[in-house]
Every structure is written in structure tokens, then in C-alpha cells.
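Lab meeting, item 3. Inverse folding demo.
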């Protein structure tokens, strides 16, 4: 029927559309070429699908045309058209093309030529025109059979849009419905958090299982549609899953993306050149606190209501907020030779600051990591001299001037708490910690294991030192906790007396031979044991080797 309407109206009245495109003037002999061009364009217009969202790609300065026809015989024919620009502003228009009253016959064709120009305004007209990048919907009602022509144009660059046409306005909407007040309210601002709330979409109350809210956080600007946000992120060099609604599968993530799933909320963080872009889908909750933001930074927040079944979305009116400035961190003074034990909060990622004023040109910093891993940043008079991750025991010897000011900043790189002991001293020849071997690993010999004994070995130094060996029976499910969460700064005083195996002194001036072995007897068959070695230096402060787990043989 639509095709028959098209071919019935086109031969007699295409001139009408052509006249409209030339300021409503009938084509003359001098405009025959323009007439042929418009004829070609109309014949090559595409049919716009009814009831389906269509993605249209536009080339710069090249218009693209689609048409659709309303069915004949309907008293009233309602329809709606929604156009979503996915990048730059575009221009789009709707032209309605109706047949003149009465049907022309070949006999009276010549007599109508004179009056054709007077009829053009009633035959074809522009009923809607828009230029911009907002999502726009046109709703119309026609009592006549008509042919509609849609024209789209991008004058800035190549882009794409989505168009949704429907003539069925009674069986629901493709797009989720926005509330009467679609604004996002900021109800709380902190140093690293912003709390948002918004009014519920009516679609949530009707289709709770297939509707969810998704939040987009970025540092650039607000976005008027979900496809506009995705296009902007892709143009920054980031590949994205098709939509937030479908970003629920880990295999869709790119290497530059981080996915966090917590309390039934999915967060996807994209690292792009313009800053961090965060996507969070939180089901049907309409209040959300955005965590882990940077202090004194302006963020833009957009909420989209997404239909998981149709993949269609609607955008709330975006908002923005600036996080509070981080208060100046408390600075603790470091004194010569004094050891400070610092516990670092892994969840809040707070920075702990220590300050030291040099009374000598050469200064030695010592860090003994007790638990977890940390990042250390040392500046001298405001200039960075050390910045790296630490594990185990580390020394830094720095040379400067008298009265130089050193600032040591520490933070945990783990999600749980880390702890470290710090010392600053100008006297490296009298170190607080003992001289260390090349490796703090304990080695076990599988071939020397029996049902009742285990043989272990460890490296020593050129300095005579005391070594104490401890053992502890553990279960399989305790291994990870013992190895990862153990306090490497705690000494034998924290161990039960029954766990002590022996203490011994040894050294060797030849580092190649500075190794010792020990066979621990009296063990149970088929049992897991945790072995620890403590090294004591002149100051008496111990250094704990890396724990070793060994299982005795079950049968011998």
C-alpha cells in the first residue's frame, strides 16, 4: 500500500516538492537540472522502518533522505518520530506530501498547468525543522493518506544518529519514560564522594525487571544521550561495549577498563586521555553515592534509564558538582635514628606524610615493610628524589645540603591496610637494621623431606648475626592468610614458645658460601608446616625472612 501511494503520487506531484525546495517557485526551463536532481533524490530515498530504531550514518554536507507513508483508510493516523544525535549537532526536517483534492486525468492535465503553482502550498509543506544535538520527538496526527519525507544533514563532520518511527502509539513506548521533573539533584558533597538522587521513572514501576538506572561520571561535560556519551569516549581512543545496559559481561572489557562488582552494582572505569570516565549501573535505586573521586575536581553526572529488553534509553537532565578540597595532611616530624611505625588505610587510600630536616649532607632512609605493599614518594625542598613501590626492607642514601627539608609521603597500594617502619639517620655506619643477604627467601629440599623431618636453607651475610628458626602447624585454608597478611615486622616475641626450633650464629666472608641449612625433626607425617627465620642485627631489631610452607611426606 505504501509503495502504491509512493508511485501514485510521485509522477503527478513531485514538482510540488521541487517547488518547495526552491522557495515555492514552480520550476522553469532554467531550473530543469535542479528538478532532475530532486527527482533523482526522491526516487533514491530509503524507506524508514515502522516500530524499529534505525541507525543512520551521515557524511558531512551530504543530505540523507528517508520516507514513510501513512495507511489509507484510517480516520486518524497518529505517529511519532524520535531523532537522537550521537555526536555533533545536525539539521533535520519533516516534509508532508499530500495528493491534491480530486484525481487529475490526462484530458484535463493541460487546463491544470496554469493553476498548479497556486496549489503547491496546500500540497507539500515542512511541518517540522530542528537544528541541534538534543534528543527531539515530533508527534503528529493526520486525517489523510500522506507521504512523509525526512531529510537529515550534518554540516560539521561525519556522524551517526538513531531514528525511531512508530504509528502504534497505544501499545507502549520503545524508550523508557522520564518523570515530569527529570533533573538530578546533588544532596551531598565530600572530598572524594558526591551523593545524587533523582525521581523515579514511571517505567520502573511498570517494568521493574527489565528497567535499570545507569550513571555516567566524567570530567569533561554532560551528555544528552547514551549514544552521544559512547561516541565521545570512543573518539578518545577507548573501545566500549555497545551500551551501559550490556556492559555486564567481563569479556566485553578492554585492557584500559576496570570492572568493579559490589553490592549488585556494576562499575566500569575507562582510563581516557581526558580523564576518568566511570559507568555505574545500580538497578532501580534512585539514590547513589559516587565513591573514590579526586578532591577539588569538577565532575559531570548523567543518569540514563535503560530498557534491558530493547536496549533503548532516555537521559535525565545532567548535573555537575565539584568535590571539596582535601585538607592539608598532618605532617609528622622524623627525628634522627628514631623509628616510626605507620599504618596505612588501604580502603581510603590516605597519604601519610613525614618530614625530616637534615643536619648532615648525607641522609639514609630505611623502610621495613611489615604488611602489604606501599608507595613511597620522597621530595627534597619540593623536588622528587625517590618515587617507587616498596616491599621488604629498603635503604635510600640521599646526598644534599645542610638544613635540606625532606618530605616522605606513604600510601598503601593494597585494598587492605599496609604497615611500615621508617627511620631517617645520618649515621649509616651504625644502622638500626642488620646487614641483609641478597635474598630473604627460605629454600626447602624436596628430596630430603621425610615423614618426620624437613630440611631448609637460607642465605647469610659477611657479618656475624643471630638466626632463629620457628615452625607452626597450619591447615590448607590458612596458607593464603598466613603468607599475605603476616606482620613481617613482628619478632619472635609474638610467637608461642612451643614454636621455637633453634637459634644459631653464623657468617662467611665469602658471600658465595654464606648459606646454612637446618633439618627440623619431630614432625608429623602428611602435615603442613609454616617455617620462619628471624635475623637479629647489632641493634637487636629482627628482620623476618619470607615464610615457607612445606608438607611432610605422607608415606615413607
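The presenter then showed the designed sequence:
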Amino acid at each position: 500500500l505504501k509503495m502504491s501511494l509512493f508511485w501514485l503520487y510521485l509522477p503527478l506531484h513531485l514538482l510540488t516538492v521541487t517547488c518547495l525546495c526552491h522557495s515555492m517557485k514552480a520550476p522553469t526551463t532554467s531550473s530543469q537540472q535542479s528538478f532532475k536532481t530532486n527527482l533523482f533524490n526522491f526516487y533514491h530515498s530509503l524507506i524508514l522502518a515502522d516500530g524499529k530504531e534505525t541507525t543512520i550514518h551521515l557524511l558531512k554536507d551530504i543530505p540523507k533522505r528517508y520516507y514513510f507513508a501513512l495507511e489509507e483508510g484510517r480516520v486518524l493516523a497518529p505517529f511519532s518520530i524520535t531523532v537522537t544525535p550521537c555526536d555533533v549537532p545536525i539539521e533535520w526536517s519533516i516534509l508532508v506530501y499530500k495528493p491534491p483534492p480530486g484525481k487529475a486525468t490526462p484530458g484535463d492535465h493541460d487546463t491544470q498547468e496554469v493553476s498548479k503553482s497556486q496549489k503547491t502550498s496546500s500540497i507539500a509543506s515542512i511541518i517540522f525543522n530542528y537544528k541541534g544535538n538534543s534528543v527531539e520527538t515530533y508527534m503528529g496526527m493526520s486525517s489523510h493518506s500522506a507521504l512523509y519525507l525526512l531529510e537529515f544533514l550534518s554540516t560539521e563532520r561525519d556522524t551517526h544518529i538513531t531514528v525511531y518511527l512508530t504509528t502504534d502509539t497505544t501499545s507502549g513506548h520503545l524508550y523508557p519514560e522520564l518523570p515530569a521533573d527529570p533533573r538530578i539533584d546533588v544532596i551531598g558533597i565530600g572530598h572524594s564522594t558526591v551523593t545524587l538522587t533523582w525521581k523515579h521513572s514511571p517505567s520502573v514501576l511498570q517494568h521493574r525487571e527489565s528497567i535499570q538506572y545507569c550513571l555516567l561520571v566524567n570530567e569533561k561535560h554532560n551528555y544528552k544521550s547514551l549514544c552521544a556519551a559512547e561516541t565521545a569516549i570512543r573518539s578518545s581512543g577507548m573501545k566500549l561495549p555497545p551500551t551501559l545496559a550490556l556492559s555486564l559481561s567481563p569479556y566485553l572489557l578492554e585492557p584500559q577498563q576496570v570492572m568493579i562488582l559490589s553490592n549488585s552494582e556494576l562499575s566500569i572505569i575507562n582510563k581516557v586521555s581526558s580523564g576518568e570516565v566511570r559507568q555505574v549501573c545500580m538497578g532501580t535505586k534512585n539514590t547513589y553515592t559516587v565513591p573514590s573521586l579526586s578532591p577539588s575536581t569538577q565532575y559531570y553526572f548523567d543518569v540514563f534509564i535503560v530498557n534491558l529488553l530493547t536496549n533503548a534509553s532516555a537521559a535525565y537532565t545532567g548535573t555537575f558538582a565539584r568535590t571539596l578540597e582535601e585538607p592539608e595532611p598532618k605532617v609528622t616530624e622524623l627525628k634522627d635514628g628514631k623509628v616510626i611505625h605507620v599504618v596505612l588505610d588501604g580502603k581510603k587510600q590516605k597519604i601519610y606524610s613525614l618530614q625530616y630536616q637534615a643536619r648532615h649532607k648525607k641522609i639514609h632512609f630505611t623502610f621495613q615493610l611489615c604488611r602489604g605493599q606501599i608507595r613511597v614518594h620522597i621530595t627534597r625542598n619540593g623536588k622528587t628524589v625517590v618515587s617507587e613501590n616498596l616491599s621488604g626492607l629498603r635503604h635510600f642514601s640521599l646526598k644534599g645540603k645542610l638544613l635540606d627539608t625532606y618530605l616522605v609521603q606513604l600510601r598503601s597500594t593494597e585494598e587492605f591496610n599496609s604497615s611500615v617502619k621508617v627511620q631517617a639517620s645520618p649515621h649509616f655506619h651504625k644502622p638500626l637494621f642488620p646487614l641483609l643477604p641478597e635474598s630473604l627467601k627460605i629454600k626447602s629440599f624436596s628430596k630430603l623431606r621425610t615423614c618426620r623431618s624437613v630440611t631448609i636453607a637460607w642465605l647469610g651475610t659477611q657479618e656475624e648475626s643471630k638466626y632463629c628458626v620457628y615452625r607452626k602447624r597450619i591447615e590448607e585454608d590458612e596458607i593464603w592468610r598466613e603468607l599475605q597478611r603476616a606482620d613481617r615486622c613482628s619478632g619472635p616475641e609474638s610467637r608461642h614458645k612451643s614454636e621455637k626450633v633453634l637459634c644459631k650464629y653464623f657468617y662467611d666472608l665469602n658471600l658465595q658460601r654464606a648459606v646454612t641449612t637446618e633439618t627440623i625433626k619431630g614432625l608429623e607425617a602428611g602435615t603442613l608446616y609454616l617455617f620462619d627465620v628471624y635475623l637479629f642485627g647489632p641493634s637487636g631489631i629482627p628482620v623476618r625472612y619470607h615464610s615457607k610452607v612445606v608438607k611432610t611426606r605422607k608415606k615413607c
